[in-house]
Amino acid sequence: MEPRAGVSKQDIRERIWDYMESQNLADFPRPVHHRIPNFKGASRAAEHFPRLQAFKMARTIKVNPDAPQKNARFFVLESKKTLLVPTPRLRTGLFNKITPPPGATKDILRKCATSQGVRNYSTPVGLDSKVLVDLVVVGSVAVSEKGWRVGKGEGYADLEYAMMVSMGAVSQGTPVVTIVHDCQVVDIPEALLEDHDLTVDYILTPTRVITTGCERPKPAGIAWSKISCEMLGKMPILRSLRHREEQAGKDVTLQDGPRSPPGATRSPRDLAPPELGSVPPSSVQIGNLPRDARVSELKRALSALGVAPSRLTWQGPQHRAFLHFRDPAEAQQAIACLQGFRLGANTVRVVLARQQRASDLVGGHTTEPLPDHRLAIAGP
């Protein structure tokens, strides 16, 4: 399955997908097209994982949520290491930490390693968690023995790694592993690789372990010129990272957006609080808060989800709060991110706030934004 001259990444993907289906090498979910393909023998390939010295030395391991890496996730949990799994499409944050119930048996750990278990036993990890990742596992559609990788074409693995770099969670020395079928190991022309493409150090297949010795530098951070406004709008955590890098003086110009000069600040009018007695259409109401909820708990939960309002009005006695955003688009994105959000034992109600009378805001605590525009909250 060697690529022909003039081949593109998509050509390689299609050939791998077609071959795996035609040879009945694929496993559920099928068809494997447009996916990180699950394959027969994935469990055998994953058995190499805990034997790697990099695995033995690692304490915190990030594993992608795709089906062929299910057993890799299980081995992390069985070894009592910290397992981090990226959130699907990065829409509600970057990581979830998988925490099995106390005294979990092997059967329970295997359930925790499934996609359903990832949903049921996870807690979000925020940007300020200072997490350090010792080992990274990614899915691949194709990979070369030199360590060059082709994903399914959406760029999430590359972006996840770049975001971890920006957070300080990984470095150039952090090993990267991929688990694939033998047929997915092919030659990949170096000309297809770009600076933002993630390379791998170990390839695990059902029949062998390949140490690539790859010396090509991994992504040094987020390539903002490759990020579209649409992508930014769908990922609150990406917006938070962009804001931090902008404040640090970095060029965060987007692929299809106007240049945002390093160190640029918004006008006082942009930062002004809403007029007393009203909630603007760019505000979100959170209701059904627990009776004993504290504003600090809500602040931590919002930060972990990458939801960053410019102000928050806390109304604990009414079991509600208002999140104020700079524009309606940010408010709508926050509503999407917070669907199904739980605080304590309560699933909260999240809706776009209607115009409120002054009497509705009596007893609320509202503060000005902090100088770096991050979440500013005052309350009990």
Automatic annotation (TrEMBL):
Domain of life: Eukaryota
InterPro entries in alphabetical order: FTHF_cligase, FTHF_cligase-like_sf, NagB/RpiA_transferase-like, Nucleotide-bd_a/b_plait_sf, RBD_domain_sf, RRM_dom
GO molecular function term, any single one: RNA binding
Keyword set, alphabetical order: RNA-binding
Any GO CC annotation of this UniProt entry: cytoplasm
Every RRM domain range: 282-355
Keyword hit for RNA-binding: yes
Keyword Cell wall biogenesis/degradation in record: no
Signal peptide span: none
Region of interest (Disordered), ranges: 247-287
UniProt-recorded name of the protein: Methenyltetrahydrofolate synthase domain-containing protein
Gene behind the chain: MTHFSD
